[in-house]
Here is the input.
Amino acid sequence: MYTLSKLESIYIKSKNDLKTLLKNDSLNEQNLNKLIVELSIDSNYLIFTNNTYNITSIKKIFKFYETIMKRSFPIDKKLFHMQFTLYLHLIKLFSHLCRKIYTHNTNREQVKQILQIMQESKNMLKLSIPLDGEIINIINNIIGQHLYKFTHSDYIDIDKKDIDYIFDYYIYSSEKIIDGYELSQSTNFGNNSKININIELLKVKNNLSFLLLSMIYKIDFYFPKLDINENPNYQKIFQYISELSFFNVDIDIKNFKTFLLDEFKDSSKKLILNNKKHYYDEKISILTLNTDEYKELIDIISQLK
Here is the structure.
Protein backbone atom coordinates (compact mmCIF):
# COMPACT_ATOMS: atom_id res chain seq x y z
CA MET A 1 0.00 0.00 0.00
CA TYR A 2 1.31 3.43 -0.92
CA THR A 3 2.01 5.95 1.83
CA LEU A 4 0.21 9.27 2.13
CA SER A 5 3.19 11.19 0.73
CA LYS A 6 3.50 8.83 -2.24
CA LEU A 7 -0.20 9.22 -3.08
CA GLU A 8 0.14 12.98 -2.81
CA SER A 9 3.02 12.97 -5.30
CA ILE A 10 1.02 10.77 -7.71
CA TYR A 11 -1.92 13.17 -7.48
CA ILE A 12 0.20 16.31 -7.97
CA LYS A 13 1.95 14.82 -11.00
CA SER A 14 -1.31 13.68 -12.61
CA LYS A 15 -3.02 16.99 -11.89
CA ASN A 16 -0.12 18.95 -13.41
CA ASP A 17 0.05 16.62 -16.42
CA LEU A 18 -3.67 17.16 -17.07
CA LYS A 19 -3.26 20.90 -16.71
CA THR A 20 -0.40 20.89 -19.23
CA LEU A 21 -2.39 18.82 -21.73
CA LEU A 22 -5.36 21.17 -21.45
CA LYS A 23 -3.13 24.24 -21.81
CA ASN A 24 -1.42 22.82 -24.90
CA ASP A 25 -4.69 21.62 -26.40
CA SER A 26 -3.28 18.09 -26.57
CA LEU A 27 -5.86 16.29 -24.45
CA ASN A 28 -6.61 13.25 -26.60
CA GLU A 29 -7.70 9.69 -25.87
CA GLN A 30 -4.16 8.32 -25.84
CA ASN A 31 -2.94 10.85 -23.27
CA LEU A 32 -6.02 10.40 -21.11
CA ASN A 33 -5.64 6.62 -21.16
CA LYS A 34 -2.03 7.00 -20.03
CA LEU A 35 -3.03 9.25 -17.10
CA ILE A 36 -5.79 6.86 -16.07
CA VAL A 37 -3.49 3.82 -16.12
CA GLU A 38 -1.01 5.73 -13.93
CA LEU A 39 -3.76 6.20 -11.35
CA SER A 40 -4.36 2.46 -11.20
CA ILE A 41 -1.16 2.46 -9.09
CA ASP A 42 0.64 -0.92 -9.34
CA SER A 43 -2.16 -2.74 -11.13
CA ASN A 44 -1.52 -1.12 -14.54
CA TYR A 45 -4.89 -2.13 -15.92
CA LEU A 46 -5.07 -1.80 -19.69
CA ILE A 47 -8.29 0.07 -20.33
CA PHE A 48 -7.95 0.25 -24.12
CA THR A 49 -7.12 -2.84 -26.16
CA ASN A 50 -7.94 -3.94 -29.71
CA ASN A 51 -9.49 -0.55 -30.49
CA THR A 52 -12.09 -0.85 -27.77
CA TYR A 53 -12.39 0.06 -24.09
CA ASN A 54 -11.98 -2.80 -21.65
CA ILE A 55 -15.00 -2.39 -19.40
CA THR A 56 -13.78 -5.12 -17.01
CA SER A 57 -10.49 -3.27 -16.42
CA ILE A 58 -12.32 0.02 -15.85
CA LYS A 59 -14.53 -1.68 -13.25
CA LYS A 60 -11.44 -3.07 -11.53
CA ILE A 61 -9.85 0.39 -11.25
CA PHE A 62 -12.91 1.79 -9.49
CA LYS A 63 -13.25 -1.32 -7.34
CA PHE A 64 -9.61 -0.88 -6.29
CA TYR A 65 -10.32 2.65 -5.02
CA GLU A 66 -13.53 1.58 -3.29
CA THR A 67 -11.61 -1.16 -1.48
CA ILE A 68 -8.70 0.97 -0.26
CA MET A 69 -11.02 3.79 0.87
CA LYS A 70 -13.24 1.36 2.75
CA ARG A 71 -10.13 -0.04 4.45
CA SER A 72 -8.56 3.30 5.40
CA PHE A 73 -11.72 5.19 6.45
CA PRO A 74 -11.97 3.84 10.03
CA ILE A 75 -8.27 3.94 10.80
CA ASP A 76 -6.59 6.81 8.91
CA LYS A 77 -8.72 9.77 7.85
CA LYS A 78 -5.83 11.65 6.22
CA LEU A 79 -5.02 8.68 4.04
CA PHE A 80 -8.72 8.24 3.21
CA HIS A 81 -9.09 11.87 2.13
CA MET A 82 -6.02 11.59 -0.10
CA GLN A 83 -7.41 8.42 -1.66
CA PHE A 84 -10.76 10.15 -2.14
CA THR A 85 -8.98 13.09 -3.81
CA LEU A 86 -7.33 10.66 -6.23
CA TYR A 87 -10.71 8.99 -6.79
CA LEU A 88 -12.28 12.34 -7.72
CA HIS A 89 -9.37 13.03 -10.06
CA LEU A 90 -9.90 9.61 -11.66
CA ILE A 91 -13.56 10.50 -12.27
CA LYS A 92 -12.46 13.80 -13.79
CA LEU A 93 -10.14 11.99 -16.20
CA PHE A 94 -12.86 9.53 -17.22
CA SER A 95 -15.27 12.44 -17.70
CA HIS A 96 -12.81 14.05 -20.11
CA LEU A 97 -12.41 10.69 -21.82
CA CYS A 98 -16.17 10.29 -22.26
CA ARG A 99 -16.34 13.69 -23.97
CA LYS A 100 -13.69 12.52 -26.40
CA ILE A 101 -15.13 9.14 -27.26
CA TYR A 102 -18.81 10.04 -27.65
CA THR A 103 -17.86 11.68 -30.96
CA HIS A 104 -16.37 8.38 -32.23
CA ASN A 105 -18.86 6.08 -33.89
CA THR A 106 -16.99 2.88 -33.05
CA ASN A 107 -16.84 3.43 -29.28
CA ARG A 108 -19.64 5.90 -28.55
CA GLU A 109 -21.91 3.21 -27.04
CA GLN A 110 -19.23 2.54 -24.42
CA VAL A 111 -19.75 6.00 -22.92
CA LYS A 112 -22.98 4.72 -21.34
CA GLN A 113 -21.11 1.78 -19.84
CA ILE A 114 -18.33 3.94 -18.43
CA LEU A 115 -20.78 6.43 -16.94
CA GLN A 116 -22.74 3.53 -15.44
CA ILE A 117 -19.57 2.16 -13.82
CA MET A 118 -18.87 5.54 -12.23
CA GLN A 119 -22.49 5.84 -11.09
CA GLU A 120 -22.43 2.39 -9.46
CA SER A 121 -19.08 3.10 -7.82
CA LYS A 122 -20.29 6.36 -6.29
CA ASN A 123 -23.45 4.68 -5.02
CA MET A 124 -21.38 1.83 -3.54
CA LEU A 125 -19.22 4.34 -1.66
CA LYS A 126 -22.30 5.95 -0.13
CA LEU A 127 -23.63 2.55 0.93
CA SER A 128 -20.42 1.01 2.28
CA ILE A 129 -18.78 3.96 4.08
CA PRO A 130 -20.44 6.31 6.63
CA LEU A 131 -19.46 9.44 4.74
CA ASP A 132 -20.11 12.93 6.07
CA GLY A 133 -22.49 15.36 4.40
CA GLU A 134 -19.74 17.30 2.63
CA ILE A 135 -18.39 14.24 0.83
CA ILE A 136 -21.89 12.98 -0.01
CA ASN A 137 -22.63 16.37 -1.55
CA ILE A 138 -19.49 16.13 -3.68
CA ILE A 139 -20.49 12.65 -4.88
CA ASN A 140 -24.11 13.64 -5.56
CA ASN A 141 -22.95 16.70 -7.49
CA ILE A 142 -20.82 14.51 -9.77
CA ILE A 143 -23.77 12.17 -10.33
CA GLY A 144 -25.96 15.15 -11.22
CA GLN A 145 -23.39 16.72 -13.52
CA HIS A 146 -22.89 13.50 -15.45
CA LEU A 147 -26.64 13.37 -16.09
CA TYR A 148 -26.97 16.92 -17.42
CA LYS A 149 -23.63 16.95 -19.25
CA PHE A 150 -23.83 13.62 -21.08
CA THR A 151 -27.46 12.53 -21.54
CA HIS A 152 -27.85 14.61 -24.71
CA SER A 153 -25.04 12.65 -26.40
CA ASP A 154 -26.84 9.30 -26.22
CA TYR A 155 -27.90 7.97 -29.60
CA ILE A 156 -31.09 6.05 -30.31
CA ASP A 157 -31.80 4.38 -33.65
CA ILE A 158 -35.47 5.19 -34.30
CA ASP A 159 -35.74 3.61 -37.75
CA LYS A 160 -38.70 1.19 -37.68
CA LYS A 161 -39.41 2.07 -34.04
CA ASP A 162 -42.86 2.87 -32.67
CA ILE A 163 -43.39 6.64 -32.47
CA ASP A 164 -44.69 6.50 -28.88
CA TYR A 165 -41.59 4.55 -27.83
CA ILE A 166 -39.44 7.28 -29.36
CA PHE A 167 -41.24 10.08 -27.54
CA ASP A 168 -41.08 8.13 -24.27
CA TYR A 169 -37.31 7.86 -24.70
CA TYR A 170 -36.93 11.61 -25.16
CA ILE A 171 -39.25 12.41 -22.26
CA TYR A 172 -37.10 10.17 -20.06
CA SER A 173 -33.88 11.74 -21.37
CA SER A 174 -35.21 15.27 -20.77
CA GLU A 175 -36.12 14.33 -17.21
CA LYS A 176 -32.64 12.88 -16.65
CA ILE A 177 -31.05 16.20 -17.62
CA ILE A 178 -33.35 18.19 -15.33
CA ASP A 179 -33.11 15.68 -12.47
CA GLY A 180 -29.32 15.81 -12.74
CA TYR A 181 -29.29 19.59 -12.64
CA GLU A 182 -31.66 19.67 -9.66
CA LEU A 183 -29.53 17.09 -7.81
CA SER A 184 -26.37 19.17 -8.34
CA GLN A 185 -28.26 22.32 -7.42
CA SER A 186 -29.44 20.71 -4.16
CA THR A 187 -25.79 20.15 -3.17
CA ASN A 188 -24.88 23.73 -4.08
CA PHE A 189 -22.80 22.05 -6.80
CA GLY A 190 -20.74 20.19 -4.24
CA ASN A 191 -20.12 23.46 -2.38
CA ASN A 192 -17.51 24.18 -5.03
CA SER A 193 -16.88 27.92 -5.04
CA LYS A 194 -15.17 27.68 -8.46
CA ILE A 195 -18.40 26.60 -10.17
CA ASN A 196 -20.35 29.39 -11.84
CA ILE A 197 -24.01 28.53 -11.25
CA ASN A 198 -25.17 30.64 -14.19
CA ILE A 199 -22.80 28.75 -16.52
CA GLU A 200 -24.14 25.40 -15.29
CA LEU A 201 -27.70 26.52 -16.09
CA LEU A 202 -26.58 27.56 -19.57
CA LYS A 203 -25.14 24.06 -20.07
CA VAL A 204 -28.48 22.56 -19.07
CA LYS A 205 -30.39 24.80 -21.49
CA ASN A 206 -27.90 24.07 -24.25
CA ASN A 207 -27.92 20.30 -23.83
CA LEU A 208 -31.67 20.08 -23.30
CA SER A 209 -32.49 22.17 -26.37
CA PHE A 210 -29.97 20.17 -28.41
CA LEU A 211 -31.49 16.87 -27.27
CA LEU A 212 -35.00 17.92 -28.30
CA LEU A 213 -33.89 19.48 -31.58
CA SER A 214 -32.17 16.19 -32.39
CA MET A 215 -35.46 14.43 -31.65
CA ILE A 216 -37.52 16.74 -33.86
CA TYR A 217 -35.22 16.60 -36.88
CA LYS A 218 -34.74 12.87 -36.52
CA ILE A 219 -38.52 12.33 -36.44
CA ASP A 220 -38.98 14.66 -39.41
CA PHE A 221 -36.54 12.47 -41.32
CA TYR A 222 -38.08 9.09 -40.49
CA PHE A 223 -41.72 10.18 -40.16
CA PRO A 224 -42.17 12.94 -42.77
CA LYS A 225 -45.96 12.62 -42.81
CA LEU A 226 -46.41 12.84 -39.05
CA ASP A 227 -48.18 15.92 -37.68
CA ILE A 228 -45.94 16.12 -34.66
CA ASN A 229 -47.93 18.85 -32.90
CA GLU A 230 -50.96 16.58 -32.69
CA ASN A 231 -49.14 13.71 -31.00
CA PRO A 232 -50.10 13.41 -27.27
CA ASN A 233 -46.58 12.37 -26.24
CA TYR A 234 -45.00 15.26 -28.11
CA GLN A 235 -47.50 17.52 -26.34
CA LYS A 236 -46.37 15.95 -23.06
CA ILE A 237 -42.74 16.88 -23.82
CA PHE A 238 -43.81 20.40 -24.78
CA GLN A 239 -45.80 20.76 -21.56
CA TYR A 240 -42.88 19.53 -19.46
CA ILE A 241 -40.45 22.01 -21.04
CA SER A 242 -42.88 24.95 -20.99
CA GLU A 243 -43.36 24.50 -17.23
CA LEU A 244 -39.66 24.66 -16.39
CA SER A 245 -39.19 27.78 -14.29
CA PHE A 246 -35.77 28.72 -15.69
CA PHE A 247 -37.11 29.31 -19.20
CA ASN A 248 -39.65 31.81 -17.88
CA VAL A 249 -41.29 32.52 -21.27
CA ASP A 250 -44.61 31.75 -22.88
CA ILE A 251 -44.18 29.05 -25.52
CA ASP A 252 -46.63 28.03 -28.20
CA ILE A 253 -46.37 24.42 -29.38
CA LYS A 254 -46.42 25.57 -33.01
CA ASN A 255 -43.28 27.61 -32.34
CA PHE A 256 -41.61 25.03 -30.11
CA LYS A 257 -38.87 24.16 -32.63
CA THR A 258 -38.06 27.86 -33.13
CA PHE A 259 -37.95 28.35 -29.37
CA LEU A 260 -35.50 25.45 -29.00
CA LEU A 261 -33.28 26.81 -31.77
CA ASP A 262 -33.24 30.24 -30.13
CA GLU A 263 -32.37 28.71 -26.74
CA PHE A 264 -29.61 26.62 -28.26
CA LYS A 265 -28.17 29.58 -30.12
CA ASP A 266 -28.35 31.96 -27.15
CA SER A 267 -26.86 29.51 -24.63
CA SER A 268 -24.09 28.47 -27.04
CA LYS A 269 -23.00 32.07 -27.61
CA LYS A 270 -22.95 32.82 -23.88
CA LEU A 271 -21.02 29.65 -23.10
CA ILE A 272 -18.45 30.42 -25.77
CA LEU A 273 -17.98 33.93 -24.41
CA ASN A 274 -17.55 32.67 -20.86
CA ASN A 275 -15.21 29.73 -21.19
CA LYS A 276 -13.96 29.72 -24.78
CA LYS A 277 -15.35 26.27 -25.59
CA HIS A 278 -16.95 25.97 -28.97
CA TYR A 279 -20.28 24.35 -28.28
CA TYR A 280 -21.31 24.45 -31.92
CA ASP A 281 -18.39 22.26 -32.98
CA GLU A 282 -19.01 19.81 -30.14
CA LYS A 283 -22.64 19.33 -31.11
CA ILE A 284 -21.91 19.11 -34.83
CA SER A 285 -19.32 16.40 -34.15
CA ILE A 286 -22.07 14.33 -32.50
CA LEU A 287 -24.55 14.91 -35.32
CA THR A 288 -22.12 14.11 -38.13
CA LEU A 289 -21.89 10.51 -36.93
CA ASN A 290 -25.38 10.13 -38.42
CA THR A 291 -25.30 12.73 -41.16
CA ASP A 292 -28.39 11.71 -43.17
CA GLU A 293 -30.98 12.05 -40.45
CA TYR A 294 -29.42 15.21 -39.03
CA LYS A 295 -28.38 16.93 -42.26
CA GLU A 296 -30.82 19.83 -41.90
CA LEU A 297 -29.93 20.41 -38.25
CA ILE A 298 -26.20 20.26 -39.05
CA ASP A 299 -26.70 22.93 -41.72
CA ILE A 300 -28.66 25.14 -39.33
CA ILE A 301 -26.08 24.91 -36.52
CA SER A 302 -23.22 25.44 -38.98
CA GLN A 303 -24.87 28.68 -40.12
CA LEU A 304 -25.09 29.86 -36.50
CA LYS A 305 -21.31 29.75 -36.08
About this structure: The mean pLDDT is 90.
